Amino acid sequence: MTDPITVYSTTWCGHCKRLLRQLDEAHIEYTVVDLDEHPHHGARIEAKTGGYRTVPTLEVGHQLLVNPSIIQVQQALAS
Fold first, then answer.
1. Which residues of the chain have pLDDT under 50?
2. Which in 45, 50, 53, 63 has the greatest CB count within 10 A?
3. Which run of H or of E encompasses 49?
4. Which pTM does this prediction carry?
């Protein structure tokens, strides 16, 4: 069993849409948190990125991946 993935995203983000499509194609399960609807989640992302709410940011276990590629997500899941 792999660690659960949380995708911090927005509906208007093209990079988010692409990564979500790639996760679907790779049959990787995830939960989406829309930062426009739930802005209180942004503080952790801002702490990781030096003050920016960069999306997509994925939480894999206890690790935050800022704007990762699908390969980086797969590597995080494998470790």
1. 1
2. 45
3. helix 42-49
4. 0.88
Residue where the block lists tokens 């997509």 = 56
pLDDT of residue 2: 53
Query: What are the tokens at 6?
Result: 């949380």
Residue type, 68: P
Phi and psi angles of residue 56, each rounded to the nearest 5 degrees, phi first: -80, 145
- Cα distance between residue 62 and residue 6, in whole Å: 10
Taking a C-beta distance cutoff of 8 angstroms, is the pair 15, 56 a contact? yes
Query: For the chain, how are helix, strand and coil distributed in percent, rounded to 5?
Result: 40, 20, 40
CA 54 to chain centre: 10
Question: 44-58: string of b/e by CB count within 10 Å (b at 16+)?
Answer: ebeebeeeebbbbbb
Separation between Cα atoms, residue 18 and residue 30, nearest integer Å? 14
